[in-house]
């Protein structure tokens, strides 16, 4: 047996052992706040899949906010912003995308931004939402871009009153996915890496996108992981990451829709974001000069609504006030 064969055999054996350990790792316990979040929710069956959403009516008014989350987490990302949001809105809706959060996470599925936009429309139609404001983050930004394109190019009648985006790769040319995202996106390597994911590797990789001094506590990382671990969500990371290719494929459609939308648009930006580095601000002002760009403190990273929830809601309210809402 030559050296290469020996090394390969050892590597395969190690992978098999590690996989055997992690594939049988118990599901993390549910924290009280996670339990409350899930009890608030309901499920809508969309094309045989169960989609989790929360529809919270806070007051009797009609000021409604729809929140869309990023990859690889869930609507639970907004739990720190929620206490501030309820002071400004009468109804708040959170949606977990297919493959994430408490929604179904089918394997071997062709995940797409188009399908996620269909899901958002289906949930809003199901719960009968009239005019609403939209707050989105990361992956949710791209879904929002598709919705804007449907309004602009396809004549979709969707009563969005304003759009606020946060730290999403809306400009593919300068978007910089983490190494782990690129590896997970690879056909074979990504398949095995996805199956080997665990709460420690998840926390290490997710921590890289937070700013200085704004990282979640280990308990909060475990909450994030516990939701990812639901229905083995970590196993479909690579399949969901097809959105990286979609961003390039539909770049003209989505950037044009963002640039030319008649809907008031705001971008809330955490500058300490390795996924959307400094050139992002310059490109935004160049391509979308007449819209609002709110840059947060230098230490805020990729999850502004988690890292600086009070400030994000403050900027959102200031924007809506300027636009007469």
From TrEMBL:
GO BP annotations listed: acylglycerol catabolic process
AB hydrolase-1 domain location is 64-309
Give a GO cellular-component term. Answer: membrane
One family from Pfam that matches here is Abhydrolase_1
* SUPFAM superfamilies, A to Z: alpha/beta-Hydrolases
Q: Which GO terms describe its molecular function?
A: monoacylglycerol lipase activity
The name this protein goes by in its record: AB hydrolase-1 domain-containing protein
The lineage is: Eukaryota, Metazoa, Ecdysozoa, Arthropoda, Chelicerata
């Amino acid at each position: 047996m030559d050296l290469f064969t020996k090394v390969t055999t050892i590597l395969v054996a190690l992978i098999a052992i590690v996989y055997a350990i992690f594939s049988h790792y118990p599901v993390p316990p549910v924290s009280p706040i996670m339990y409350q979040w899930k009890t608030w929710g309901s499920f809508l069956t969309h094309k045989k899949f169960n989609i989790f959403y929360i529809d919270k009516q806070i007051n009797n008014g009609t000021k409604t906010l729809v929140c869309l989350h990023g990859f690889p987490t869930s609507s639970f990302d907004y739990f720190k912003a929620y206490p501030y949001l309820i002071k400004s809105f009468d109804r708040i809706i959170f949606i977990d995308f297919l493959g994430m959060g408490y929604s179904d996470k089918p394997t071997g599925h062709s995940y797409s931004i188009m399908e996620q936009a269909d899901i958002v429309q289906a949930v809003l139609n199901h719960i009968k939402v009239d005019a609403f404001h939209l707050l989105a983050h990361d992956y949710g930004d791209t879904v929002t871009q598709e919705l804007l394109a449907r309004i602009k190019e396809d004549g979709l009648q969707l009563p969005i009153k304003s759009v606020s985006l946060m730290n999403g790769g809306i400009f593919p040319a300068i978007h910089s996915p983490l190494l782990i995202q690129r590896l997970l996106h690879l056909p074979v390597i990504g398949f095995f890496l996805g199956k080997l994911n665990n709460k420690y590797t998840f926390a290490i990789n997710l921590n890289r996108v937070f700013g200085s001094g704004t990282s979640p506590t280990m308990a909060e990382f475990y909450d994030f992981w516990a939701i990812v671990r639901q229905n083995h969500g970590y196993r479909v990371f690579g399949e969901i990451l097809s959105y990286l290719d979609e961003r390039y494929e539909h770049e003209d459609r989505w950037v044009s829709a963002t640039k030319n939308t008649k809907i008031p648009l705001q971008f809330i930006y955490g500058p300490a974001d390795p996924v959307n580095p400094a050139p992002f601000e310059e490109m935004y002002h160049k391509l979308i000069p007449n819209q609002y760009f709110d840059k947060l403190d230098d230490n805020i990273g990729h999850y502004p609504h988690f890292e600086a929830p009070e400030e994000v809601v403050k900027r959102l309210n200031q924007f809506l006030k300027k636009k007469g809402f």
